[in-house]
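TODO from last week: model GrpE protein homolog.
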Amino acid sequence: MSKLRTPSIWNSNTVRFYSEKKSNEANESEIDAEAEAEQNLSEDAKRIQELESKLLAKDKEAADLKDRLIRSIADFRNLQEVTKRDVQKAKDFALQKFAKDLLESVDNFGHALGAVKTETVEQHEEVATLYDGVKMTKDVFEKTLTRHGLEKIDPLGEVFDPNMHEATFELVQPDKEPGTVFFVQQHGYTLNNRVLRPAKVGVVKEQE
């Protein structure tokens, strides 16, 4: 009697079934792994994109802060310059007003010396001593003013300059060049190279 081979057929099918099942499971695992890898890559790309966005935002914020800082520094320096100029103007104005008041004293010294005749000085020793004392005081006073930027304008013989001189009268002078100063009625003064008081002068007039 022949033996039945059904079990061996069954075993072969079973093996093939299990083999296919294992293969399917492997494929599914590979698919799951690929899906997980793709998901991880997608999440990483999303994180990178978020980080790049944050970095761009920080860069923009830093640029804005830098621009504001530069503007603040520029404004501060401008304020310093304006304040410095204002302080200097205030000092110059105060000094200018004070210097103008001092010019009256200088003029008075000149008037006092001019009022004394040469003969009187030569004939009277006491007057000569007083005259020398007043002149010495005037010289010291003028030197002190010069050290502080105040200088005399003495334009005798110079060409008339409306920026430095004030013409009080004109006369024809045949031996002098028209337009030149032939008489100084009152000396002018400059303060730090700026005209504090123009010199009052007589100017040579052209012959008609």
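Done. The radius of gyration is 52 Å.
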